[in-house]
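Q: Dolichol-phosphate mannosyltransferase subunit 3, please. Structure only.
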Amino acid sequence: MTKLQEWLSGLGIIFAIWIYLLTSKSLNEFVQKHYDLILYSPVICVFIFGLYALSVVLYRVYNFNDCKEAAQQLSEEIVEAKENLASLGFKFKENAK
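A: Structure for Dolichol-phosphate mannosyltransferase subunit 3:
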């Protein structure tokens, strides 16, 4: 079973329970007492998931590390590639800054 199938089956089960709670004719006291909460629970779950996703992205951006050695090595490789291309006859435009 792939991850997609696992997620879809789990969401299908949760959706079926949600629909059952909304449309059931049983006189369950919990459902009657908290009908509005059950009705808006998918919206609440999406909002909570959005907050979680936002916090994960912000945390990972905050902890993103700089690789100064890699940046220097990349700059050296760019200079080397430009020299190689210049020796083959390629002409570079000067950057107007």
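A: Brief note, in case it's useful. Residues 41-62 form the longest helix (22 residues).
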